[in-house]
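Listing S7. Sequence submitted for prediction.
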Amino acid sequence: MPPRKTEDETALEAELMGEATPVLAAAKPPEGGEPPEVRLHPILSNEEYRKAQAAARVKVDAEKRKAAMKSVEELTVRQIQAEEGVFTGDAVQDEMVDITLELAPFADRLTINGMVYMHGGTYTVSRARANVLNEMVFNGWRHQEEIDGKSRTLAYQRARGTSISEKTGIVRNAPQAA
């Protein structure tokens, strides 16, 4: 037979199990006075219990601040990388290149991670981003030609309409920078 539990052990076990904590003080108030203070913890005094709660709040607030600082730091790193064109850590893929978008007739813009790239615009982006944009442009034209019933190889033969005069060097029909 297990040993009999004391009142304090029973109260502590009830609190740990999420049950209502029994009042450890006398149930009847003394005559003509205020009722006795209810104990908040079976072992700690009410003052010690409140100090432990305050310490826990400080600890939780510190953890929340630490997580918020880490989040802001990571966001700032991504923003700086985007501004400087450093995304992959690979020198070739992070090289900045100019790209002019000539989108299919049904599209007026491409959007990547909230960044909008408009038809006819010339943008300086990392080579990795330029590769993604070129793929999106190609797939857009391939889709347009597919719904028009044209050959799939037409995308490779599409005239861009830009010409350079041999005599004067004048460029005609070149895409304009946005």
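Caption to Listing S7: primary sequence and predicted structure tokens for the chain studied. Confidence is low (pLDDT under 50) at residues 20-27. The chain is about 45% helix and 10% strand.
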